[in-house]
Amino acid sequence: xxxxxxxxxxxxxxxxxxxxxxxxxxxxxxxxxxxxxxxxxxxxxxxxxxxxxxxxxxxxxxxxxxxxxxxxxxxxxxxxxxxxxxxxxxxxxxxxxxxxxxxxxxxxxxxxxxxxxxxxxxxxxxxxxxxxxxxxxxxxxxxxxxxxxxxxxxxxxxxxxxxxxxxxxxxxxxxxxxxxxxxxxxxxxxxxxxxxxxxxxxxxxxxxxxxxxxxxxxxxxxxxxxxxxxxxxxxxxxxxxxxxxxxxxxxxxxxxxxxxxxxxxxxxxxxxxxxxxxxxxxxxxxxxxxxxxxxxxxxxxxxxxxxxxxxxxxxxxxxxxxxxxxxxxxxxxxxxxxxx
Length: 340
Prior knowledge:
single chain; mainly beta; 11-stranded antiparallel sheet; 42% strand
């Protein structure tokens, strides 16, 4: 009796386990099941190539718009003996679609690296760029050596005689005639704006005569000629106003020699036996223009005042008197030189 009861209990447990396993398998299969693949359609058939009408009278075929490339030009048959050669690309070949050309590069990003395009290939001419001429160098030195031509327009000159502190005769004064001269100079730039130099100035012919109001006076006749040599140290400044142009201002206190002849001082005193010499002051302004690494041009104008003295001797008593000469001249200078 007990054995039957145990067998029934085992059968019931076995059925229960089988039912639980079947339910678990059904649940897991439902969750992890993959969808069935979609039905695949057959690929579409390729479109038939467009058929071109046969050419009429040997004309070349016309390709429809949008056609990618021509199917290739057929080679001509081999030439027969005695006939002209036939080229594969005969004249009159239709234009390639989409701008295609047999002479173009197969790689658009890398065009042909030619200096000049072949003639007749349809390329625009390559612009030739002329190389820029480098600017000529400006002077870098500090020294300038130059020479110039002087123009001395009309000035004034006067002189008188002094004896033992008193004036013997009234001053004689008159105008000088226009003349020319020469000048040589050496300058150095101490730093950017300040310059120091020295100049020698030579006026070979300086003449004067009395005004018309004094020409009839015998004792006060005025006239003569002289040559003048001036030694002029320069102190000035140069101001750059352009790439090659400098503005120049200067002052030159110096020393002057005036050798006169034919002086009509009076009936008593004769010409001085030596040149009159004394202080000279000059001031002016100008422009320095460099047109190369070493060459320059110099244009300037100046005013100068001279105070020269000499001694004369009386023809009757032999006593000496002092001759005082005062001059006022304007000069215009144009020249050039070497910058180093």
